[in-house]
Design brief:
about 220 residues; Aminopeptidase; about 30% strand; globular
Length: about 220
């Protein structure tokens, strides 16, 4: 296992595991991206987004480049931790956690996608609950936020089901066209009311040191 702490974090639930996005896991997942199974109709992501590339080889290349750039730009002021979602030993999607001046604001932002072959099985909810456990229980977040286009019923449904509250609207573009996004917010207090006791965290302390979070109260 590599000694780079963010790649060694594991979040395990009874159904899934979130594993740091190593090159080995990305190699297993890239066929899903190549086959266009990481997106949906209507278009779920705001611009710019490598997953919208029409050429499958270009799509995979730009997707990998974005992940590698994220690894190289982790600092205490801004970080994006990227995890591969593993179900029954198979990589089926990604779940990210983003911190922008996290030590100051305590706000963690989530982003995810799931293979079209695995949707409508409750995995999206399990992914979100797993990453929230890392944010709140592992890193001591004070709140979590996310957003999705108004017609992204799947993502908005997940946010609502795990306890987020609507937090206003914002305009964004997708594939060059404007669209309204719903913002969502989950406070630590609201998360504690739903906190699960069957989620296991591994590698968190070493990762916190990399993110400059060792002094935070968790």
């Amino acid at each position: 296992m590599l000694s780079y702490p963010p790649l060694n974090v594991r979040v395990t639930t009874p159904r899934i595991q979130l594993a740091g996005a190593t090159d080995e896991l990305l190699a297993e997942l890239q066929q899903v991206v190549h086959d266009g199974k990481a997106t949906a109709d209507p278009a779920p992501y705001d611009d710019p987004m490598s997953l919208y590339e029409a050429d499958p080889d270009v799509r995979v290349r730009k997707w990998l480049q974005a992940i590698w750039r994220g690894r190289g730009s982790v600092t205490p002021d801004f970080w994006r931790l990227q995890f591969v979602v593993v179900v029954d030993g198979r990589p089926v999607g990604m779940q990210d956690l983003i911190g922008d001046r996290f030590s100051t604001y305590g706000t963690a932002v989530s982003f995810s996608w799931l293979s079209s072959d695995e949707r409508r099985r409750g995995i999206g909810v399990e992914m979100r609950q797993a990453i929230l456990h890392l944010a709140f229980d592992g890193f001591g977040a004070s709140e979590a936020t996310t957003e999705a286009f108004l017609d992204n019923a799947g993502s908005d449904g997940v946010s609502r089901s795990v306890g987020y509250e609507p937090n206003g609207l914002v305009w964004a573009s997708r594939r060059g066209e404007p669209g309204l996004m719903q913002r969502w917010r989950l406070t630590r207090e609201a998360w504690l009311e739903r906190r699960r006791d069957d989620i296991d965290l591994r590698g968190v302390e070493d990762c916190k040191a990399t993110l400059g979070l060792t002094a935070m109260n968790t």
